[in-house]
Amino acid sequence: MSNSIRFLLSDMDGTLLLPDHSLSQRTLDAVRSLREAGVFFSLATGRPPKAMLQQIEALGIDVPTAAFNGGTIVKPDGTLLAAHYLPVPVALTALATFIDQPGVEIWVFSGGDWLLKDPNGPMVPREQHGLGYPPVVVESFEPYLQRIDKIVATSNNTDLLIELEARLLTKVEGQAQVSRSQPVYLDVTALEANKGTALATIAEYLNVPLEHTAAIGDGGNDPAMFHRAGFSIAMGQAEEAVRRQADAVTAPNTDDGVAQAIEKYILGR
Description:
Helix content is 33%, strand content 22%. It is built from ten helices and 14 strands.
């Protein structure tokens, strides 16, 4: 296993990062060892591009990275390798499905901005801490419909989000990706905006065959890359449905699961 992997694509929140969104020293060391061994390392996340910059710099990443679950793939110099926007009819359907749902906040990401109508929603502080920048308050999402990167329905009522995921999928299947990136976040992105396509796009850019790639993640948006990668690893705290779709399961993110996976499966220590 260890000799065959030439590119590892990692999720961020719940995977690479600790619960407080920081990087542990062991993780930093493991990624550095990986790159010293000649293995490419990159990130695929539901986050916007500018909410990845700090981690890209800390990890010394010098290859393209995937934001918005693969909706935007950015080269190291900041130019776009790929961009996939949500079709307008799908965006309208998603917004109509989420509106007036009790305890559900709706966020729209467009042009690098995090847009919302209610800045006092209970989920806002968590997201602002994770992203590292504040939202833009708007009266309507309508002016942004042509260039929506991602719509998020967020709630502490995870059962309701599971229900909304199923309800929306019946309306937009084959037209968009609908998945929970975390238990409290339901993401809606363009059909091509998935981590599997992102893995294939970056691997092709790096000239690495898919059988020599690996992917690691914890959320419902990560099996898309598990299914394309040569080898896939789920985090220990991931839901059973996610763990079942991976080739291996590592420790939770609270116990340096990514570092352990790199050491065991890729560097072969």
